[in-house]
## 1
Amino acid sequence: MYTNESDMRLRTVLTKRGKSQCSSIIVRCVSRLLAIALIFFTALSALHAQTAELGDIQGTVIDRKLEKPIASHPVTLTIHKTDTVETQETTTDENGNYRFAELPLDPSVYYTVSTVHEDTDYTEKDLVLSTWVPNLKIDFDIGAFTDDTAQIRVKTYSFIIGPPPADHAPDGAVTVAEAIGIENLSTLPFRTTHGTQKVGVNLTLPRGVEGLQPHSPNLTMDPNTNQILLKTPLPPGESHLGYEYIFHIEKGRLDLSRRLNFNTNQFFVFVPEGIGIVPRGKFFGAPRREQIHNNVYLIYESDANQTFAAGKKIDLALNINMGAARGALPGQTSNNLGQLIFIAVAAALTGGFFVAALFKLRAARNTTESDTDDTSTPPDAGWLLKLNPDDREHVRVARLEFITHLDDKYERQEISERVYKRLRREQTERLTTLLEQQKRGNNA
């Protein structure tokens, strides 16, 4: 019995030890397998992360004159980081293709791709790679331009009259701001020759312009020919140009007459109420009185049915009504009136007023034109009807401030032209809708 009991106990102990050792061996095996799997998946994840965090920018350089790719053509990549700017350069292969690879997918890094052909720069700015868009294709169609001036028309030519700068002598000078809505009807960028240089647009200025300040990118003035020049080709579609200068009243009038370089649809003259400046041209109708940007203007508009041909000298002289304007010319008397004009012009020069004026007039003009874009339901139309007049005014100011902000960022080259045009068009269309709603509310 003793022996049998001892054997039984011994067998029990050995059985328990065996099971324990077996369990220990299984646990150790499972642990090792998990460790191996973890190392494998960690390495795989690291490899995947390393791959996912890199992207590329590629494209093709094509000569549109010959309709064939350009081989061995240099293309430059500029990498804009927070504190540094780096550049890389490559050349196209026999098929005109280029590629910049292993670029970090960092939202704080911006890329610019550029090339030069026949002294013309081609640039795509503000490109960003991310995990959502790790690859970008940027093609360059170069050498393809039209020089057919019949494809260019000035849709609106607006003049805003205001006081001279505060530090300017009171010698009869005024500030003139010009806003031009110009359209390239061709599918190709427009480029013309001015002297020995290639330019996108050349617009004639009146004689006697002082201190011209462009408010659109790539504008400059040639003092020898008295022309304002757009240094880059004019892209297809509609563009807006703006600038301002100082001009003098002589012999009782402000003569802004000039010869037109392109067919022009309509002229507008904005005069702050009470100034006594009146367009002389018979094609201007009676003014309408409107409040824009919290200031009251008399708006003179040319006949919408009359087109002004290129090569024709247009009478844009403004007579000074000394009886109405005596003691009220800009910068010479009434501080309240001078302040009113100054605010209006300041708004114009920051871009907001240009937009309000151009697109308000554009909306009125397009009611007589067959434009498929204008016949569609305008954005914001529904919810604007639910707002009271004060809320609509707040929306209007917010739209103007946003457009002004866009103009400033584009002028500082902080956003690409493609993004700028898309956002600006969207906001100006919404602004037009709002102005129409306000106008209907005022007439109700």
Note: The CA atoms of residues 59 and 139 lie 5 Å apart.
## 2
Amino acid sequence: MSWFKSGDPDLPVSVENVTRLDGRVPLQNAIPLGLQHVLAMFLANVAPMLIVASAAGLDSAETARLIQTTLLVAGVASIVQLYPVWRVGSGLPVIMGISFTFVPILSFIAQEYDYATVIGAILVGGIIEGTLGLFARYWKKLISPIVSSCVVTAIGFSLFEVGANYFGGGQGAPDFGSAQNWIVGSITLIVAMLFQVFGKGFIKQISILMGLVVGYIVSLFFGMVDLSVFSDPTSYAISLPQIMPFIPKFNISAIISVTLIFLVSLTETFGDTTAVAESGLHRDLTTRELGGSICADGYCSAISSFFGCMPVTSFSQNVGLVAMTGIVNRFTLLMGALILVLASFFNIISTFFNTLPNCVLGGCTLLMFGQILITGIEMISKCGFTKRNSLIAALSLIIGMGFTLTPDLFAIFPEIIQNIFAQNVVAIVFVISIVLNLVLPENIEDTFNDDLFKEEREQEEGLGGVIISDEEKELKQD
């Protein structure tokens, strides 16, 4: 593994290499371009940990430490994805971060059991997903584009309630839905939206961060930020991540639930790496790259659990950044990954995010969650609205969203089934779409038309002994 050498030893160090997968880029260009990737994913990387830590009832010190560790985990996982170790990693320009996909199920497990049970489920589920990546060539055809599209759409829907709760100030908060929360959350959302709509280039990519900054400043005027934490000298210290801050507990219901979501994360990674190969490198994704990306997804998530963190996955916003800018150089993205690693050692960063009011987080995440939903709809559209695709999307989404809105439907099932599916729209959509994709015939449109017009075609071909003229056929249709 050689991080600082180009694929072509004769290729000179040049800024033009940013559009090549390999090749050195001058540091004065590579660092700001790498930082751009960090800014595009920074909040999305931290927010899931904030949400799950809150659901688990962790204190401010534990939450701050885990927020800091998320930066280290994301940086290391990105490095592995960029520069594979053995068969782990794709070698594609992909940035990794803490996954929003796991927020609903991990929040539920944290509240139902405890955070140690969350860590145990992540450890087992990560190992299972990573191992599946080693055998990608055997199951690749099962995850069709329409299955991936339905799953991403379901993720968007599943996160809406989470975003709304934080917009109101956090579920169970004494001031939930207060005028202050409405005002600050709305300002945050509007600012992020304005930068997204009217911003250009780099400014457009940091629209979420700009919304966070403005929302945070407004919340200061409302007295919603506890500034006393900054008077603690430890807030400015440099610290090392803690290994095994939580001793894993293993609960079979939690493990099965989280493993199913790891399979969902697998489909997301499948879609992200395919998009990078097609839009950035203008070629198809290879089976080796797919398997490597899944291995990195799973095994790096298992390693993340040793630091008390949530699973990691490929970040779609960074995939979009690659597609928009055409910057696919691995060395450039490596600079961004190293920035994440370095930032993880400075306490002030995690301290700041721990003071972030819930309504500000809600204003930012609403826009991100909405974008996930739209991405899923766009993916379904790209698959084509054939009768087969429409049936898979319609049935999987209506069953997934409808049944989880009425969880009492699962009362007749064993507790383990209820824990997995009763409040997990993504798991239901994944299972239903996979089953439908396997059982529905590929030529469903042809079969439908054959049955409808069988008699007419037989008559036209003379099989019934009668040949109908064009005029007679028109009269018959009328």
Note: Residues 448-477 form one domain.
## 3
Amino acid sequence: MSRLDPVAQRAAAATPPVVAARLRGLSDRALAWLFIAPTMVLLLAINIFPLLWTIRLSFTNYRANRPNAAVLDIGLTHYRSILTDPDVWAAMQATAHFVFWTLLLQTLIGFFLAWLIDRKFRGHDFWTTVILIPMMLSPAVVGNFWVFLYQPQIGLFNYAVSFFTGIPPSSFEMLGSVRLAPWAIVIVDTWMWTPYVMLICLAGLRSIPDYIYEAAEVDRASKWRQFWGITLPMALPFIMLAVLFRGIENFKMFDMVNLLTNGGPGSTTEVASITLKREAFEKWRTGYSSAFAIILFVAVFGLANIYVKALNAVKNR
């Protein structure tokens, strides 16, 4: 502390007397707000202002590629157009398909892996690290990696399917098939983010006190009864938390779909984020895309709010 005293003394000496007098009169609460004020201003600048500006643009016919054109207020025209557009509803249906199946598979597989690792078998630390590797990679790496795996001529995925089913490897194409392309994206996202769900579920399993299981064994409860009566109910808030995080991320999924299929073939895998990108940066309908972004934001916020209330009810029961 003595080495810091000269520095503090020089800082105090360099502080103008008027500023020093004002600082000495501030309470601890005021000083705390003084320190966090720059961060709050930065967050408002990069989050709140763009949101308000997007809301403003959603009521206009503004196009970013025509900045000098007249900007007219058109009211709720964009919102009515979006909510009655069959292409938008098709994109929302593709998004719902992706979100539902990825959440289901990631939750089931992630919880099962967490349950296995929680057994603390020999080498479980090593296998935990191996399982976490996909989550450590960037989406760009994972996307390009799986594009090669899905190649019908040289990809290992087709040969693996052929080995177990006997189907010729070149007889199907995961990314080029209207029927298989949505499942190809589900497989990749499940492979990459199941470890994330596993970590949260593992934290929930290891938070269960051992004495509860000991009491259940004294009462001669079977392992199956312990699982349904102790393990699953006490880990349920963590499972629901993992579903919440992954649901929000998957609803706005863009990078993985863009790298694998770019919404194709046709519009089979065109999720809402791909539609939003095309409206904003290919068709340059800035006002329309702003309204679409607001609708997506309200949908995610509303569903998340309802889900959080259900999560709190489970935690407080």
Note: The first helix runs from residue 5 to 14.
## 4
Amino acid sequence: MNRPERVLVENQLLPDEVDPPKGTLRRFWRDLMTSGGRTVESCPDFLRIILLNLLQSAGVLAWGLFLLLMLIGILEPTPARLFIDALGLVIALGVIIGLRRGMSVTLAAQVTHAFLFLGLLGLSFTRAQNPLTMTLPLVYPALAFLLLDDIRRGLAGTLLMTAGLNILLSSGFGPHLRDSGMLLDGALTITLVMVFQAAVMALYVHHRKQSIAMLRAVSVQLNELASHDPLTGLHNRRTFIEVLERELARRDDDPRQLAFLLFDVDRFKAYNDAYGHPQGDELLKRLADTTSRVFSRGEDVVFRLGGEEFGVVFHTETPQQAAEMTDRLLAAVEAMGEPAPAGPHASVSVSAGLYLVAKGRDTNANLIYGRADQALYRAKEVGRARWLHASP
């Protein structure tokens, strides 16, 4: 059976709609961290967007402060230091603005990570005589893993940063070391701290990805249950209006005509009374399979609307084609050969109402359903096991 286009109906409120932050400062902070409301906690990229905005906001303050201190003469304004601080300020502002304007989260994370790696390592070289500067790259592993959200690339970056710091220590560019024992002690300390951070963050990222994968799988299952009938596997009534309204919105762009067929089983209660509800359920499943074989095009959407009532939304080249498909369905149902204890024929049959949506006509899903339902009941009144056109 061809799978029709899935329609997932989700009604989610943004956090601000549920509990709006009070106070100008809190609203400003929420707006800044979420890139103007671009993300919510249920979004897979929520953590990365928050981290990017937090990191770049801290960067704006840090780079701006250092530039100010150099301009007023408190810090020595070396060319390398000026270049790194100025570039850091530009990148931080660029990422914050870019995220608000729809910049890819992956691109923002890659740009931030690249400058984080080069900036921390560059500052270690340009300010190597200051022992405190050597501690700056120790923050790198945690940020790299969170920004890249990838264990292998996080490990690679950590190893490169560790190697760069050890080269700096052993090359004579670093702070003055009294003896080789101090050099070895510093190198081992940096290496162990970086490796430990990398191990912890790799474990975190691994389990976070597993948790997200499980949540996505559960979300897909819940959406499947919410939009499909558990007995027949067909789309259910919840998605019917959504699908029909979607097709109505684009019907004028399609040269074919939109059609809706509504049908149900003739004297289904008598069938249940004679054979039992489990056998009635089996009949409904067979009916769903039969309908899906008749309306087997990828864009045909078959619904179980409730009880023994089914519907099909489809497109037709001509009214004659729609009539032929409806005839095929009624014949296929009777060809199933299910005995009908009180039906109009010896085999189970269905009655149906067919509505063809006119181009340009102002209509809606509820009106279409109502017209088809009226035609269905007229078909029952005149003898069942037949279909009638719905009035326009």
Note: The chain is about 60% helix and 10% strand.
